[in-house]
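EI: anyone free to look at a 428-residue chain?
SC: sure, send it
EI:
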Amino acid sequence: MAFRRSGKPAAQHRRILRDTTPTRPSRFQGAHRKDGWVLYRWETEFGAAVLAYTVGGEMGTTFPSHALLGELADNAAVLAVVAPDYNVPHGPSLEAIDAAGPDEYYATTWRRLEQLLGMPAPYWHSNLRDPALMTAWRPGAATLTVPAVVIPDPAPLLRLAAEEPDGSHAAVATLTLAREAMWDCAQTALREITEHVDSSDGIASIAIAARPLVPAEPPVVAEEILRDGWRSILNRTDVLAAECARVGSIMGPGRYFPGSCKVTVDPAFCAQAAQWAARLQPSPRTALAIDLGDDQEHTILVDPATDMPAVRTDEGMIETIAPQRLPTLSPLAALTIAHRSVWVTCEDDTVFLAPQIGPSYTYGYEGGGPVALARLIGLLLDDITHTAPGFDATRPDAGLSHAVEEDWKSRSSPFTLTRTELEVLCNG
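SC: here you go
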């Protein structure tokens, strides 16, 4: 039997949080936590509505889908997800998916959500999401003043600071980092709630569940104290120091570390790498080796000239941490460009892995790597103890920049340039 189309267009799905007008109030059914989310649920005349927040980590962009709805609330009619940005002037962005509709999420607003629920829905800034407080919320609850949630948890930093004696630079370093993280998270929440929620045209439909408890602004601490404090922590071999190193590497005080950039060295690639590798000695695992992994099968080594840790890989490579500055007063005599590494030979014949905190050193094109290499050369010619170039807008010497980006395109590493050759490029 043949079937003929009727010719009538298919009925268009009416999106619950865009096209419907409720005729009776909803009933709040509570909140619970599931798989990294906090979920608020209401029973509406169109079926269950769920409002979802991610918790427990940095908030990424998670768009609602039928798969997500099935994972979080398989019997709900609509799922709304609070996105990490703002829909100016309507307030925090909301994206929704209907169980009965096509697998396409759509934008909605807090006004639409209030119309469906019959009450303002709770808003939690991403820096204030404490799951215990979130799941305890009920309609009509007073706005809480809560400490900002810092990720990663700064507890190891505070524990070390508490266990150190008075006047300890290590205590100052960890306490400063924890205070700065708490301050930054609280200030971000305060600013974004003020600018994008309080002033939104949907504020009457938003129940701001929490505002930040703003701590005292951290005092300014001398860089020398912070560097000395982190140096003493990273030289330790205990688990607490390693936990502080891990937290610190994520939070970003790497500028105060004696070394923070991992480099892979092929000791067979050039004479300078072989000379450096030959002086490595076995060493206890210090906290500075945290970026070299936790594999206890590999013997930790150390460069006695810089105290930077290293490990030999199963492939014959050496993973190490580049120093931020060189511990020598002997001027630069030559520079060797090798594979994935740059080597400094001083006038006293000591070879060092080049200091590094920014992009990898590369050449033969216009980009961050060549700019960093040109800046490194200029800095070390002027002062062998200068800190490695970081991430900023400072441009290198024009002659060095042209050489690194253009003149060296045809060169194959490894190749070495003497101090005289490098100085000629600076004056070119």
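EI: The CA atoms of residues 13 and 102 lie 8 Å apart.
SC: 👍
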